[in-house]
Design a protein that fits this description.
Radius of gyration: 22 Å
Order of helices and strands: EHEEHHEEHEEHEEEEHHEEHEEEEHHH
Strand order of the largest sheet: 6-2-1-7-17-16
Shape: globular
Distance between the termini: 25 Å
Number of helices: 11
Structural class: alpha+beta
Helix content: 25-40%
């Protein structure tokens, strides 16, 4: 076994990969540029900082991301364990107190006896030894150039991502809002801010014409659809937002018993419930414009914004040309990538890539056979998509049932079909977990 494995980056994927390696007795050297330097999107020195949202999305296994989370839980994911321990009420979604979550991940990583943290920016790839690069979508320019050179000139791809604003709970006018979760699922954890038709149309018009912050080289076509800025959405059509984040379906106003024309949802951002974020309101408007336009929402007329939305460029690899299904560089297997730099999109997906990369690297270090995550599992389906050399125009991908092979038998109803797909996947994951146990590993159990 080597003296240690280097993991570059202490985001979700880097922490997950480091944890999986360390849990199997493998020394890890974790390189993280905080606190010496932060990216433009980061606000704290903690690890696994959640930048865009505090939500890990749906938690039901018949939902693809819910299935992925359950797979990670069963395999001892650090990220999912910390998320479960710092969760806040969010209906059927898994949302966390982002500061408490980051603090818990940081404490777990720093206190692990097999992980040594070395702060400071990394500008070159280590010339020897196994390395996991999990520097995320905001990889620094010097390291990005070093990776580009190492890969022989393979081009990066990129898109622009955005974060939503945060407001204080006490500044929300609850006379113009109500608590509810869509379709009454779970507990009524969201604050819903209704707009009538006239209010909505005035808001959309102001939003579509608001002044944007300058982001060099930005064009609407370069925005990832899953993080579409709200003002870009407003420009796409009169009712585009009403079929997106302002959709009123399943959210009747208890005061009238009727569906509003449109609804802006606010989700708790911390355990105390003192801060809420505007769901789906990623934006790159100038800060004064955000205050002006978002204050047109009746419940937010006097809102106190503790953070305005920001826009940043996300960098990722043309992975189908570079990586195999273990996230290893085909031409240089000592080099592994994990997280959003590979083109997996989303918090849970980033953690999944880190878990797979860490498990596979641990197997190699311990002289054990590779772990086969078939495409029937959500973890395996993501890895297969990222490494599929037949993909010509590669784009970042959230987990979805469309990348998982269909059932060999017919099932009536989408929900029932997804439940069967989830059952099949979890049976395979349980077999993998058993194989890990039989080979003398602890499965990466969280402790």
């Amino acid at each position: 076994m080597e003296e240690h494995i280097t993991v570059i980056g202490a985001g979700l994927a880097g922490c997950e990969a480091a944890w999986q390696l360390a849990q199997r007795g493998i020394p890890v050297l974790l390189r993280e540029m905080k606190p010496e330097r932060r990216t433009p999107a980061h606000r704290s020195d903690g690890y696994a900082e959640l930048v865009c949202s505090n939500s890990f999305r749906g938690d039901r296994p018949e939902n693809a991301v819910g299935l992925l989370k359950e797979e990670l839980r069963r395999l001892g994911s650090l990220i999912l364990s910390c998320a479960n321990r710092t969760r806040v009420d969010a209906g059927g979604a898994l949302a966390v107190d982002r500061e408490a979550f980051s603090e818990l991940v940081t404490e777990k990583i720093r206190s692990h006896p097999n992980i040594t943290v070395v702060p400071g920016e990394v500008t070159q790839l280590p010339p020897e030894g196994n390395v996991v690069v999990a520097t995320g979508p905001l990889t620094s320019d010097p390291l990005a150039q070093a990776i580009q050179t190492h890969l022989g000139g393979h081009g990066y791809l990129y898109f622009y991502d955005a974060a939503a604003p945060l407001v204080t709970f006490e500044s929300i006018d609850l006379d113009h809002a109500y608590f509810a979760s869509r379709y009454g699922r779970g507990t009524p954890d969201y604050i819903n801010c209704p707009l009538n038709e006239a209010e909505y149309r005035a808001f959309r018009q102001a939003l579509a014409g608001a002044e944007q912050a300058q982001v060099h080289g930005f064009e609407d076509s370069e925005v990832f659809e899953g993080c579409m800025p709200i003002e870009v959405m407003a420009r796409r059509g009169e009712d585009t937002m009403r079929f997106g984040p302002l959709k009123p379906v399943g959210l009747p106003d208890p005061r009238t018993g009727q569906l509003p024309y449109a609804v802006v949802q606010l989700r708790r951002d911390n355990a105390q419930g003192s801060i809420y974020n505007l769901v789906g309101f990623q934006t790159h408007l100038r800060f004064p414009e955000q205050k002006r336009v978002f204050s047109m929402i009746p419940a937010l007329r006097e809102a106190e914004f503790v953070r305005f939305g920001v826009m940043h460029r996300n960098t990722y690899l043309d992975s189908p040309r570079i990586l195999n299904r273990y996230y290893q560089v085909r031409q240089d297997p000592r080099l592994t990538f994990a997280g959003q730099i590979t083109g997996v999109e989303g918090y849970v997906e980033s953690a999944a890539s880190g878990l797979l990369a860490g498990l596979e690297l641990a197997q190699r270090q311990l002289g054990l056979p590779p772990i086969n995550f078939p495409q029937e599992t959500a973890i395996g389906a993501l890895a297969a998509y990222v490494s599929d050399s037949s993909v010509n125009l590669f784009q970042p991908m959230n987990v979805n049932f469309g990348i998982i092979p269909p059932l060999s038998y017919r099932v009536r109803g989408k929900r029932n079909k997804n439940q069967e797909l989830a059952k099949r996947a979890l049976e395979v994951v349980d077999q993998i977990r058993a194989l890990l146990a039989q080979s003398g590993e602890n499965g990466g159990a969280f402790s």
